[in-house]
From TrEMBL:
It comes from Paramecium primaurelia. This is Uncharacterized protein. The keyword Isomerase applies. GO terms for molecular function: isomerase activity. Keywords: Isomerase. InterPro entries: ECH/Chromodomain_protein, Enoyl-CoA_hydra/iso.
Length: 276
């Protein structure tokens, strides 16, 4: 990993940004940057991955429950992750892009290879990379006010987090184009309709209470049967997911290595301001 990315990670690995608690045999992971709508710093990517990997190896942890504090589940990437880019020369930018690509490869692999059930409780905005990432979760629960938005292509980024494979399977070709290329939002009811989400709730408290009950029920079942069952279900699509993710990462590396990244992000922000 490049020194530039390593320095950013060390600076941004702030423990308070992602909280963890073990309840019974379930690891609860809570995004805790509500003042920034739980936007992800580079350091948060690494911490999230580390907690997932630790839980998968821990024989006392059977499930992972992911939730967040605040009005939004997550607003995706903190665009300040790219603040260093304007000051980089061509060689440093290529090295930083390679480091970021390798970091994302490790991050996505931790979810692709996760053996234990993982559940998400989503309220408010589910924006950016987190929207397609949740398609790899075993259960997604949402509140009535939840909505899903993937603006990455709107500011010149690429498809990511397995969405080149999972979105057409979930939503069909036309809806996928609307979501990824036109920036159309997906409502909670639509998420339920397409099978992206499994249950919908009026309030966040009600949703988390029900999710914990489901975790308790799953904890009582034979864990070996659950792990092997999940592995068999995923086996049928594992190679396609891995290949799609690698192609997405190569495309992102190409974009980040180029000289249009900052300009594209700036133009997107200007378009947003013009709508306000």
């Amino acid at each position: 990993m490049s020194q530039i990315i390593q320095e950013i990670i060390q600076k941004q690995k702030i423990k308070e940004h992602i909280l963890t608690e073990v309840i019974g045999h379930t690891l609860e992971i809570t995004f805790n940057r509500p003042e920034f709508h739980n936007a992800f710093t580079v350091g948060m990517y690494v911490m999230f991955q580390e907690y997932v990997l630790q839980a998968d190896k821990d024989p006392n942890i059977y499930l992972i429950l992911v939730k967040s504090n605040g009005k939004s589940f997550s607003s995706g990437n903190d665009l300040r992750n790219f603040d260093a880019w304007p000051g980089l020369n061509d060689e440093d930018r290529k090295q930083a892009s390679l480091g970021l690509t390798n970091m994302l490869r490790d991050f996505t692999s931790s979810f692709l290879n996760l053996t234990k059930p993982i559940i998400a409780c989503c309220q408010g905005g589910v924006i950016g990379f987190i929207f397609p990432l949740l398609s790899l979760f075993d259960q997604v629960y949402v509140t009535e006010d939840a909505y899903f938005f993937a603006p990455m292509l709107l500011f010149g980024q690429g498809v990511e987090m397995f969405s080149s494979y999972t979105f057409p399977r979930l939503f069909g070709q036309g809806k996928t184009f609307s979501l990824l290329f036109r920036g159309q939002k997906l409502s909670a009811k639509e998420a339920l309709h397409f099978g992206y989400a499994q249950e919908i709730f009026k309030t966040q408290d009600e949703m988390i209470k029900k999710a914990r009950q489901i975790c308790q029920q799953l904890e009582q079942q034979d864990q070996s049967a659950i792990i092997h069952g999940k592995k068999l279900i995923k086996r049928a699509i594992y190679d396609q997911l891995k290949t799609s993710n690698e192609q997405e990462l190569l495309n992102l590396h190409r974009i980040w290595s180029g000289d249009k990244l900052v300009e594209n992000v700036y133009n997107y922000m200007q378009r947003l301001k013009a709508k306000l």
